[in-house]
Amino acid sequence: MQPGGRGGVAFIDTPAGEAALRHYRRGGLVAKLFGDRYLWTGRDRSRSVREFRLLAELQRRGLPVSPPLASRYVRHGLRYTADLITLKIPAATTLAECLASGDFDAALASRVGELVARFHRQGAWHADLNAHNILVNEAGLYLIDFDRGRLRTPAEGWRRANLARLHRSLLKLGAGKLASFEDKLWPVLVDHYEQAYAA
């Protein structure tokens, strides 16, 4: 198992290649009551089906996501459990790992800003934009784990809130200890975000 959303991710072999299997789990206090079970309100509103469809649409639009392979839900009376399988991004590290290893520099910050802007221009709202959900490899950057994400009309309010969530995530992971973070790295990220969003 490896971090990647609540409950972690297991990597499995599939005919399409190595893939990430994620079992949906609740977080916080609700997890103690319901664990991995969600209230059934119909197939089209199940977590796995909604995320699968969103990822398929984002991929169709040319955005760098983990290609969806399969989704599943299992009814348990009035509740259900769910799983999602996506193709694994090869040889990737998370932005959180880059920060921990000292590889989060101005060049990477600029690329992160541009990545987020690409999604926001398409109206793609990520419910949990944090440093663990941004992957980096030689080919580029990717955004993963779109559980509860959705497409919305681009607006200043939610875009700024999304960036603020990423900022809090980086601070929580120790970015604030870097002397250059608030004075250079974060401003570079935001500046490249603005430029890419306006392009």
TrEMBL record:
Signal peptide start and end residues: none
Question: How would you classify this enzyme at the top EC level?
Answer: transferase
Keyword annotations of the record = ATP-binding, Cell inner membrane, Cell membrane, Kinase, Lipopolysaccharide biosynthesis, Membrane, Nucleotide-binding, Transferase
Q: Where does the source fall among the domains of life?
A: Bacteria
Compartment list: Cell inner membrane
Q: How does it sit in the membrane?
A: Peripheral membrane protein
The entry's family comment says:
Belongs to the protein kinase superfamily. KdkA/RfaP family.
The pathway where this protein functions is: Bacterial outer membrane biogenesis; LPS core biosynthesis
Q: Which residues form the active site?
A: D128
Q: Name one GO biological process term.
A: lipopolysaccharide core region biosynthetic process
| GO (cellular component) term, any one | plasma membrane
The entry's protein name is: 3-deoxy-D-manno-octulosonic acid kinase
> Mitochondrion as a keyword?
no
- Chief localisation class: membrane
- Catalytic activity as recorded in UniProt: an alpha-Kdo-(2->6)-lipid IVA + ATP = a 4-O-phospho-alpha-Kdo-(2->6)-lipid IVA + ADP + H(+)
Source taxonomy:
Bacteria, Pseudomonadati, Pseudomonadota, Gammaproteobacteria, Lysobacterales
What does the UniProt function comment say about this protein? Catalyzes the ATP-dependent phosphorylation of the 3-deoxy-D-manno-octulosonic acid (Kdo) residue in Kdo-lipid IV(A) at the 4-OH position.
An MF annotation (GO) of this entry? ATP binding
Matching HAMAP family: KDO_kinase
Its EC number(s): 2.7.1.166
Could you tell me which Pfam families the record lists for this protein?
A: Kdo
